[in-house]
């Protein structure tokens, strides 16, 4: 494992994406130009009867519906749907639901939601109905009939056999990296015997594990994946889509290439750990195409390095453990690296797309620093998010000479500020200054440290968009804790008025009026883990949990933030990017999450 990348300027990195190069080359060479596509998945005959495929390339995103998607899946989604979009193609949304028992509708719905939220869809023009769209949402379990037929075809051609060795013998006879495997005693059975046996398997005459169907390739192959891989196993289990229709189920390595071919995928993109499976992927599809079952040209598999990011974990099992043991509030806890978690935290689809783009597609495994995600978020929101003032850790500031200057303690001075400094079209925010305002507790120091330019007795600062004030002291309770900061307003220094600059100050602080501020629950999130690689080398990742990953305060918001809808993002001046919580926020009881600060506090 290489060290975490410390490159703090991802925007300057030119991402390598070898997949684009491959697709460009294929398009230039016309590799897939003469392809027919029937509009729905199917075998060679089915597609031959269809028109030429209007999609120049077909990719797919094929999750197993057995959990919530995480940031690594987001990368794969952006890559597959993004390549199809950029090259005039279609990306299929396919559930790889060939494994009974584990799948649940909750996960199917969650996955579809996540892909849509990221900005992608699977509707594309219908080959048979010009001007209309058709959904390209597929379920691998609907190909079980074809898979079974393909298996019988291989048996008939002596390319597959039923093996009745015990699982232990099978494992032993597979050999290892240095020792070739040994042929099974069942390897030489006749196709007719194998076919009969396989039909018994299908008819439910044998117990789970009693036998498997294996490809007949080469037990001495240097690639262990070619040493007669298993194609079908017996599993008396109910499937969420096909019920009890089947008691044998295809292995992933057999099912996946077939799914790609039936859907006429051109570029089948997966992560590097499948590289050694590619020879079998090709072997299987070529044999089935020779037999006339699958249409040429066949899909090709390409592998890229998975996304590894510091300060998170992406193993579904470990994420589940965090949820089950209550270390987080659920799959959508804003500290989780799941797509639902990132979404609730406030990360935008655009920021995740930007991250996927900037991390490119490469053949070498590497680590991306978590700061890349925050940088992408800031790059996305900087130009979009409305600005506002908020006080996160409030203490009251009292302007003692207020009625002297303005005639009454109840007087308020109208102030305004642009909603966005570079976008005048977004208009002005209105708020007002009164005798009492909320300021940040750490903007006052009774004994200022060196270089402190904010409030301390005798010092002047500007209340942003308001007046210059001069600190006169503070009030304390019996325990010596500061309960209020005292100051006086300096007349004729209001921002935007002619005399505003007559008094020079080094510090400008943000504030919210006590009379018009809105109380809000602020949830300040930080990284869930305090170690860069929390689960490296089998380490106990729970011991790396960051105890300070969440803190909750009651803060105050400027009045322009009244009646906010949920899922609304803004920049709190000086503090960073925030979002109203999707789940808990109410217009009359604001709940706001910190997405990230304005600068990275971790890597520097
Ligand atoms: P995990 O092991 O993290 O649970 P998985 O591979 O079992 O993930 P699938 O549902 O099979 O999950 O994955 C769907 C797609 O997402 C696959 O094509 C897979 O290669 C891709 N994918 C999963 N994790 C990552 C990652 N970290 N980076 C890039 N792609 C990923
Ligand atoms: Mg998987």
From TrEMBL:
Belongs to the class-I aminoacyl-tRNA synthetase family. L-glutamine binds at residues 96, 252. One of its GO terms (biological process) is glutaminyl-tRNA aminoacylation. It holds the Pfam family tRNA-synt_1c. GO terms for cellular component: cytosol. Residues 508-581 form the tRNA synthetases class I (E and Q) anti-codon binding domain. Keywords: Aminoacyl-tRNA synthetase, ATP-binding, Cytoplasm, Ligase, Nucleotide-binding, Protein biosynthesis. PROSITE patterns: AA_TRNA_LIGASE_I. Residues 385-487 form the Glutamyl/glutaminyl-tRNA synthetase class Ib anti-codon binding domain. A motif ('HIGH' region) lies at residues 63-73. It comes from Sphaerotilus mobilis. SUPFAM superfamilies: Nucleotidylyl transferase, Ribosomal protein L25-like. Its EC number is 6.1.1.18. This is Glutamine--tRNA ligase. A motif ('KMSKS' region) lies at residues 313-317. It is found in: Cytoplasm. Coiled coil: none annotated.
